[in-house]
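Quarterly update from the structural biology core.
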Amino acid sequence: MFQLFKRVKTVVGSELNALIDKAEDPVKMLEQYMREMEADIRDAETAIAKQIANEKMLEKKLKDAKALVEKREAQALKALEAGDEGLARRALEDKKSHQANVEQLDGAYTRAREDAQHLRKKLDEMKSEYQQMKLKKDSLKARAESAKTRTKMNRTMSSIGSEESRRGFERMEEKVMQYEAEAETSEDLRSSNRSLDDEFEALETNDVDDELAELKKKLGK
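Predicted structure, tokenized:
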């Protein structure tokens, strides 16, 4: 019954390493260990209840046997007072028989009481250890969940900035640069494709300005 507690204590004492090495889910395994410990405690409580019942039964038999011894002694005394020595002898003989029974029952009762006390002590130890393992389990469960989260985040982060991602960014950068070059080229083509009429129009505008300046000069302005 108590072997499981030793096994669980060893597993929990080594924390998560052994479970992880076996590719087992630490949280599920710890929960299973706790259920087994609870079952052991219930079995121990049942055994103790039976032992206590046996102790009480022996105690009652011992009291009854002692009472009968006292009764036979009182009866023997009463028979002697009545002058019936034969009856007194028979009462004392029966008393002797019950006295032997008392001694036998007293030994059995003492052992039963000691066994019950021992089992109670073991049960208290089991419950105390169970509470300690429960606290440890909660701590390990939180650490396991945290480790899983960190592992998941690390795997996600490792994919960011990977070689494939960098190549993708470089391709997009080249494409943007290509767009910019095409835009500059189209701007240059637009400038070079100005029509002759545009150029002559600009030239004529300059001639009008010159003629206007001559007229102002003649007017003395």
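The helical segments are 3-13, 17-21, 26-81, 85-159, 163-192, 196-218.
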